[in-house]
Amino acid sequence: MKLKKLAAILLLIPMILSGCTQGASGSPDTPGTLNTLSTPDAEKFIIGISQLIEHPALDASRQGFIDELKTQGINAEFIDQNAQGDPNNALMIAQKFVRDDVDLIFTIATSTSQAAKQAISGTDIPLVFTAVTDPVFSQLVTDLNVTDENITGVVDAAPIKENLELFKELKEDIKTIGIIYNIGESNSEVQVDQTKEIAESMDLQIETIGIASANDIPQAIDTISKKVEGLYIITDNMVASSMPLVAKLSQEKGLLTVSADGSHVAEGILISKGISYYEIGKQSAVIAKQILADKKDISEIPVQSSQNLEKKVNVKTMESLGFIKDNKAFEGAEFIEQ
């Protein structure tokens, strides 16, 4: 009987070993993960992404961040959330990230960054932001070189002077330029104040109209078009979410349109000279890699800005306003046939 039991055990051993081998072979990637390191024991990080609203510029930042982390060889799982333009949603998203104990939070736009700062207070979770114009004014950091509260990132400050100069190149005697902005967005308030200050030194007058919702845009453009010759599109998320409408109405009013965001040109804005949101997303990913993989202290990583500017021109809008490609303002530009 003992010999029979021993024989039965010996027969079972290969089956047990086979089962163990199958279990160790691994399973398909979990949905929502980005596995880029070939070594099976590579450290995996969970990153929460909080985007304020869906529009081309912020989408580009998000994609640049994800693509560059892959390029950097980081094994990451993304918890990707969109606040749908609501700061209250942004706070709930950030609080959930904290409860989930993510390894890093990546925020896109000012409101989501402010919400995440509130949520990570008292934790050791690092926050990397992008698409924020003035993180000092928005109280994310006390100084661009002081990142001692687990917060750093990449700003999207536009070259305001260069954009205002485009108006003068388009129309030498232009005097008045309009801005429509969201009164509830600190990022926009900063840009309005900066633009007014710079415009004064250029003998230009700035007219502004604040809006509380995207529904106010048609009336705002109708009103401001009676006072101005051109419309300057700052990086305002509410206005950006309705950019095709803004471009269409401005064109109907014969307004020259210059944007601080190159993605707006494909939606009908005449010209832009600004940063690439995809590139600042990539730049943010490099910072995230330094924090997560290189274990660099976030206090040693100051807030950064992009030095690469892109000039783009919408051909259809250009032609409808009576311009040709050899205009001085379009020199060195990429022409968008949309």
Describe the structure.
With 338 residues, the chain is α/β, with parallel strands linked by helices. It has helices at 2-24, 56-71, 87-99, 110-120, 160-170, 186-201, 217-224, 237-240, 243-252, 277-292, 315-320, and strands at 33-34, 44-51, 75-82, 104-108, 127-132, 151-155, 176-182, 205-211, 230-233, 256-261, 271-275, 304-305, 309-314, 334-336. Strands 1-3-2-4-5-6-12 form a 7-stranded mixed beta sheet, with helices on both faces. It has a 7-stranded mixed beta sheet with strand order 8-7-9-10-11-13-14, with helices on both faces. Residues 1-39 have low confidence and may be disordered.
List the topology elements.
Blueprint: H1 2-24, E1 33-34, E2 44-51, H2 56-71, E3 75-82, H3 87-99, E4 104-108, H4 110-120, E5 127-132, E6 151-155, H5 160-170, E7 176-182, H6 186-201, E8 205-211, H7 217-224, E9 230-233, H8 237-240, H9 243-252, E10 256-261, E11 271-275, H10 277-292, E12 304-305, E13 309-314, H11 315-320, E14 334-336
Parallel strand pairs: 2-3, 2-4, 4-5, 5-6, 6-12, 7-8, 7-9, 9-10, 10-11, 13-14
Antiparallel strand pairs: 1-3, 11-13
Helix pairs in contact: 2-10, 3-4, 7-9
